[in-house]
Design brief:
The chain is an alpha/beta fold. The protein has one domain: Spore Coat Polysaccharide Biosynthesis Protein SpsA, Chain A (Alpha-Beta Complex). It contains five helices and six strands. It is globular. The two termini are 21 Å apart.
Length: 158
Amino acid sequence: MISVLMATYNGRRFIEQQLDSIRLQNLVPDAVIICDDCSSDGTYEFVQDYISQHNLTAWKVTQNRENLGHYRTFLHLVNQVQEGLVFFSDQDDIWLPDKISTLSSFFLNSDVAMVYNQSEIIDEGNRVSERPALSGGSQAKDLAFLLKKMAFRISDGF
């Protein structure tokens, strides 16, 4: 089971590109679960329409009753997944078409519990940013990883 989890908040401006990049993966996820954290810019409604327009029966979008914040929204999402591989997605990401297949392959017949992938920072025009790296030379993003649900339970969360 491969699940993609996405927390959204006022991401209407950029979210369509990420939804497209997930939908067009060369290995289709079994479930895409999106939770909107009380957006005021129409993000929730846009995602509902997107799912309907593309007939994405394995996709689900919900909305928090109150703003919980990024961390608590992701905890809520993770608790909806029973087993398998869990991809975390930001609303303004754009995934390469082979992200799911490439990262998932590391888990075949192995004891690997988590895989972290390299990422590039892009600007509003989808150009690779010249922004300097973080301290230590890292440009890592907090959601550029995949893990087994079992590893999340064992580690007691993030």
